[in-house]
Amino acid sequence: MKKLSVVVFASVAVLSSSLVWAEDSARAEQIAQIMQDRFTSADKNADAQLTPEEAKGKMPYVSRNFAQIDADKSGTVTQAEIRQHAVNVRSANASASGNVTQ
Ligand SMILES: [Ca+2]
């Protein structure tokens, strides 16, 4: 009987963490979509890269953190660099707060 309640508890724990993950993932998808729309609208010459001038005004966060996001120091940022920057910031914040990320 004790074993059964442990199994039930474990299943509930797994289920709730999956639900939290699904919500996070839906939110992440939404954010990714918004980010992509803003990127596309900022990318005036449609070369899939933003110059500091293109980022200015349209993507203020990218504009402010341009040098940090431009990982390969090419003078432009791509969506991949912005995504990678977001991942880096998120894991840095998680380690700072002591939370464990997935
Ligand atoms: Ca561009």
| Domain module tally | 1
Radius of gyration: 19 Å
Uncertain stretches: none
Strand content: under 5%
CATH topology: Recoverin, domain 1
* Mean pLDDT over the full residue set: 87
CATH class category name = Mainly Alpha
Binned, the helix content reads over 70%
Number of helices: 5
Bound molecules: calcium ion
CATH superfamily: EF-hand
- Number of strand segments: 0
Brief write-up:
With 102 residues, the chain is mainly α. The protein has helices at 2-42, 52-55, 60-64, 66-69, 79-97.
Description:
By secondary structure, the chain is mostly helical. It has a single domain (2-96), classed as Recoverin, domain 1 (Orthogonal Bundle). It has five helices and no strands. It has helices at 2-42, 52-55, 60-64, 66-69, 79-97.
Provide the descriptors you would attach to this structure in a database record:
Recoverin, domain 1, 102 residues, mainly alpha
Set out the fold topology.
Blueprint: H1 2-42, H2 52-55, H3 60-64, H4 66-69, H5 79-97
Bound molecules: calcium ion.
